[in-house]
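A brief tutorial aside. Many learners find it easier to grasp structure tokens once they have seen a single protein encoded end to end. The record that follows does exactly this for Alpha-galactosidase. Read the sequence first, then the structure, and try to relate runs of similar tokens to stretches of the chain.
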Amino acid sequence: MHSVLFHPDHRLWLLRGPTSAYAIRLAEDDSVRNVHWGAVLTLDQAVTLAERVSPAASSFEAVAGVDELAVEGGARFGPPSLVVRFADGTRGVQWRYEGHDVDGGHLRIHLRDRHYPLHVTLNYRVHGDSDVIERWTNIENRDDQAPVTVLRCDSAAWAAPHRTHYRMSHLVGGWNSEFQVRRTDVPVAETVLTSRRGMTSHHANPWLAVDDGTAGEDHGEVWSTALAWSGSWRITLHRDPVGRTTWTGGFGHEGLTWSLAPGEALETPVFAGLYTPDGFGAASRAWHGHVRGQVLSHPDETRPVLYNSWEATGFDVDEAGQMALAARAASLGVELFVMDDGWFGARSSERAGLGDWEPNPARFPSGLGPLAAEVRRLGMRFGIWVEPEMVNPDSDLYRAHPDWVLHMANRDRTEMRHQLVLNLARQDTAEWTHAWLDRLVADHDIDFLKWDANRPFTEAGWPGSGDPERLWIDQTRAVYRIMDRLRADHPGLRIEACSGGGGRADLGILARTDQVWVSDNTDPVDRIGIQHGFSQLYPAQVMSAWVTDSPNPATARLTPLRFRFHVAMAGVPGIGGDLTTWTEEELKESAELVAAYKRIRPVVQHGAQHRLRGDGTLTGVEYVRDDDHVVLAWCPTRAFGHAPAPLRLAAVRPEAVYRDLDTGATYPGAVLLQSGLPLCLPRGDHASTLVRLRRVH
Ligand code: DGJ
């Protein structure tokens, strides 16, 4: 079955996924218009839809139809996806179709401006086993003299079909409170989801789902989209008073312009879209499949249980202390030991040393070699924290190269966490950064980098550069290039993306990292909500979650060790507490829980995830892989006399029987679906449980 079909008479393309279809056509003026995004259609059925365009009701209405990449020009008054200004002052684009080609599931539609030699290609890519459509734009200035000013160049615009109501779901938050799901009616207005921070951000994540207000976890049509970009971004959602809801998204934010030099070409990041008829849960599972199938480099690998020193030591890092933590971590079954911030230069606090990437000689008199060797002797891999994009002004690097940071003439250099951002759009700075990372990884055969970035951009200038605002894009590209080069040269290297917790989680960074540090908030109660939001788009396999001390350093909440573990086990758990203070009993219980995780991890990391909701505060997740089901359920608090009702499971066959692998109890599938799994939850707050079920017949 071909996944891209073309109807030459009607100039219509149909992209087919296993359970969805996407149709577009060329209008009379050669603009590419959306025809259909939803359930499966044949080419002939799509043609009947293409003919249904109602003429404008008055001279005040916009051009009929929905553009796939709206430009300025003609009667278009919604948010444009592509805004350019030519050297003579003319704005906008008038399209001329130049042809198309199809390569497997990749459709390219070639367009150009009718007058100026500006060429644009709209890219669509589908993968046979998935309903996700990847879209992006190529733009090329083929003028050999004049530059083109680019004011906006989005990756794609998406449109939900006509419905009587529209609702949007998106992710908001802040430091320590990332990935909070918000569900709200789409106002009849232009709504902008954006980060102007130069980073993906904690405050908004580039994921957006639209439904008609009736979708739930397991029912209803959902149109969701995700942008693969780790710098500033913008998604503008437009609900017309009489028309449909559309949205356009891409890199950069409003007010930035840059120049496309004569002969220069530019490719945007991917803005992917997915239609699902079966609710938010099915949408998440399809996205998880996409991340594994198309985004991650090592999807089949099982992520190790790690230890991270940050919450135990803060900046107080030295060889003996790390070795003591490593010994305890190894005895618990930890497989990867990660030394966090504080190991280099004069970095004994957040005030100094960032940028001086040599081991601190007082803390590591013989360098990192002895610690790395000890960690390996203990049977673990060795990982280390880095923050390559940043510098403390109090550092040898900054004293030598004060011009290597983002800055503007006649403006203060705003410090955040006492640091500035290196300008990696500069080739010398980027080369230097790659060189020290390459040396560090090679010298110690580093297995894992925790790659952090602890502040947004301010005064993002580059005095002397002819096109300074371009760095908002080039900086992110440079980070990608450095990561890609390191990974190509060190195939065993794995990277955890971090930006003060979850400030840099997106499909762009996941193409060159293996997991994400989701939040600096390790309180398991808060974490349930954070993980719920994260799971809308990102799979458990990339969700790094630590078990830390109680009371929690961020919230002061006291929680049982078992509850902390059960929450972290929903992803890739690590231990981040001060193990030197844990009692023998706690260490023993931790070792048992790490072993329990290793038993369930193939199902958690490689299975399908179903979010579950019980009564009261009871929530859970169920992972399913072949015949195995793992249920993790959490009940942070409960009122007197209300033992939670059994938790209804998903993805269970009604006619089958399921056996609890730990107790031997058996349950008919129909009962698990209808009445639920009885949970053996301890009394009191912060109750949790882990159940392993196997389909027996
Ligand atoms: C922010 C990260 O999110 C933390 O886990 C830790 O690595 C600190 N930075 C270190 O400065």
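Self-check: Residues 584-606 form the longest helix (23 residues). If you spotted this yourself, you are ready for the next section.
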